[in-house]
Amino acid sequence: MSFTLATWNINSVRLREDIVCQFMREEAPDVLCLQECKSPVDKIPLEQFQALGYAHMVARGQKGYNGVAILSKIPMVEAGAEDYASLGHARHIAGRLDNGVTIHNHYIPAGGDVADRTVNEKFGQKMDYLSELRDAFLADKPVKSILVGDLNIAPREDDVWDHKKLLKVVSHTPEEVAALAEVQAAGNWVDVTRADIPEGKLYSWWSYRAKDWDAADKGRRLDHIWATSDIASTGHSSRVVRHARGWEKPSDHAPVFATFDI
Q1: 202-255 confidence digits (pLDDT tens)
Q2: Which string of DSSP letters, residue by residue, matches 182-241?
Q3: Average of pLDDT values for 82-100?
Q4: Which of 40, 54, 87, 247 is at 20 to 30 A from 26, Cα to Cα?
Q5: What angle is formed at CA 160 by the lines to CA 64 and CA 132, rounded to 5 degrees?
Q6: With contact defined as beta carbons under 8 Å apart, do 167 and 216 qualify?
Q7: 33 φ, ψ to 5°?
Q8: How many separate domains does the chain show?
């Protein structure tokens, strides 16, 4: 079985319903994982998505905040949802495909502006989420699984536009990068995107603050596709759909793709 998968922080699925539908028509991934849906589950425009072939959905939602959903053309059942760090936020949903692959969709907290939990509660929430995720993988090793989402960390020097300038900026601090590496090691996860594209600058997020995001190109790779080591070699054809960042009323994130032959 071969299937394409995309992950995209949509920054309000209802506000950006039109570009989600455009993406479905033009790129047509078999599985689309969305983060920051900012919608209760019953308000997600599922009928429009179903009309484009996405008959299956698992989701967790909140009004105006957070929210994660997996939309699929191929059969999928819910495989659980966890409240990491006990935040009461809709930040994780899992779906299982007919071939036994479990897809985990995460929206890790952004962490605020200051990389110090003593003065910034949001940074502490982010670090707690990461540590609980690490501990969960240590306690129960995932197999035949894919982990995707807006992890809100750009781990490599070439995942940001300027490594030295961003070392103290939340999303690229050494503390966050180390914590994400622990999560990855705990679950024997392989970064499929970087396995496919091992060298060079690669971004999936560009700030709304830039007047011309494309020309400035001050991006970060915050959106990830990982696979457990038992199936990682089946992943290929990774890419970032950069031009979607320039669509009308865009998200500040671009979709990230991979294909799996499992």
Answers
A1: 999 999 999 999 999 999 999 999 999 999 999 999 999 999 999 999 999 999
A2: HHHHHTTEEEHHHHHS-SS---SEE-TT-TTHHHH--EE--EEEEEETTTGGGEEEEEE-
A3: 97
A4: 40
A5: 55
A6: no
A7: -105, 125
A8: 1
Q: In whole angstroms, what is the distance from residue 172 CA to residue 184 CA?
A: 16
Closest C-alpha to 59, from 102, 92, 24, 13: 92
Instruction: Classify each residue of 110-122 as buried b or exposed e, where b means 16 or more C-beta atoms within 10 Å of its C-beta.
Output: bbbeebebeebee
Which two structure tokens, joined as six digits, stand for 149?
């989402």
Strand, coil or helix: what is 28?
coil
Domain holding 58: CATH number?
Answer: 3.60.10.10
What tokens does 146 get?
A: 């894919």
Cα–Cα separations (whole angstroms), residue 74 to 59, 97, 101, 179, 215: 16, 7, 12, 34, 38
pTM (whole model) above 0.85? yes
Q: What is the pLDDT of residues 55-77, one digit of tens each?
A: 999 999 999 999 999 999 999 99
Question: What residues make up the domain containing 104?
Answer: 2-261
Residues with Cβ within 8 Å of residue 143, at least 6 apart in sequence = 228, 230
